[in-house]
Hints:
Layout: E1 3-9, H1 15-27, H2 30-34, E2 46-52, E3 55-61, E4 76-82, E5 99-102, E6 106-113, H3 118-125, H4 135-144, H5 150-163, E7 172-179, E8 185-191, E9 205-209, E10 213-218, H6 219-222, E11 232-235, E12 242-244, E13 249-251
Antiparallel strand pairs: 1-4, 1-10, 2-3, 2-4, 5-6, 6-7, 7-8, 8-12, 9-10, 9-11, 12-13
Amino acid sequence: MCRMFGIVGDFQEAFPDLFNALQDVARHDPxxxxxxxxxxxxxDGWGYVSSSSGSLxxxxxxxxxxxxxxxxxxxxxFIAHARKASPSEPLGATNSHPYxxxxxxxxxYLAHNGxxxxxxxxxxxxxxxxxxxxxxxxxxxxxxxQKGTLMQRLGGxxxxxxxxxxxxxxxxxxxxxxxxxxxxxxxxxxTAAPNSGVYTEYNRLYLVRGNGWxxxxxxxxxxxxxxxxxxxxxxxxxxxxxxxxTRMATESK
Length: 253
């Protein structure tokens, strides 16, 4: 599974530590090592999306995040993802997260770890060849076929996944949507219920509250020596789509 986080609010002061923590576990992930996965690193590219005060930056690269220099995003909404590709999955910058899609109503950026049944997803959205695309990209395409708000689209896509039993592992999702009519961003996150796959500490997402910011993080990141100490954290509830805003984490079914 990849490592990722999404944050909202006034996070610039804490950001160097948060970014260093992601780089740290991408270089060597103790929880991944405990699972017997060798080498225990997330080296298959990385990317981020940043939205703040009318500014939007989307970056993806095939290079490991631990070989990258620091970045300095503005306060607002931010997602970062360090990839560990599943066996036989395509590599390269175009397969690094966050993925992007858009239509007449919104721009959507998706970061994902875990796994869906790629062949089954491809069949639903009418894709024949799957070798050069990932399950994450197919899931985003399925999501964009749904109607309504960002919450409704994500919920609709997850409902189809459950209906067709396409959960191959415990997926975690962080999604940023930006409405085209008013430019308003929204950040959602989701972790599947434990019975959808093997559920260990490595699979968990944590909700973290810092000074002026709130975020959701892959478990390994919060265990890094670089992760800020003056925070409150709790395990994210499973099986429910959650919304993160600049004030607090709010829950929506």
